[in-house]
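Recap slide: Ribosomal RNA small subunit methyltransferase G, sequence and predicted structure.
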Amino acid sequence: MNSDIFKELLLKQGIELSARQQEQFRTYYHQLIVANEKTNLTRITEEDEVYLKHFYDSLTPIIKFREIISNAESLCDVGAGAGFPSVPIKIIYPDIKLTIIDSLGKRLTFLDKLVKQLGLDNITLVHSRAEDAGRNIKLRENFDVVTARAVARMSVLSEYCLPLVKVGGYFVALKGPKLSDELFEAQNALTILGGQIEKTCEFTLPDSMDDRTLVAVKKIKKVSNKYPRQAGIPNRKPL
């Protein structure tokens, strides 16, 4: 998938890229490859794979859950790595207020330089573990949408992400295939943390064998002050 095919496929999904947005994605690809030579940001470096498995994949929440993303004024991305899915979403919706949380400073250094080169504003970068961010009064229950892409199992992700979501907002997880067992396993955590699965969507990325699952979890009540637990505990002892 090159830049032109990327544009055509998005147009079929009702997303029309402007010339500026196309250039932003080209710049993103170039800066990712340059930075990746010094900092291990991604193992995916071929242009066609970056456009498919990073850029297009990051935009699937817009394609599949458009009403959730388009109505959001604020979005927080937990464990964004090289900026996926939040920076591609920000390119499409430049007015959304974006916060990116990551525990590795080298990733945030890359993202700080990247968003300036892309001409994106209203972005806050937070160097923090997700568990610590969820206890930060400036971040806790402060976002319309919180995203996470293949960071951990749903039971763990829920404790990372739901404390950051406003009541009435959504946690959107970008996951791989065959998620039924993982979702069943996460039910206890979702109940404790005030989340309710509203939508799931299984699909295959275009012209590939790569299966994906999107999960939209609605926040229906506030989270107890007991959660998230201290850093490292959610992963070692999932709810």
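The first helix runs from residue 3 to 12.
The two ends are 40 Å apart (CA to CA).
(End of recap.)
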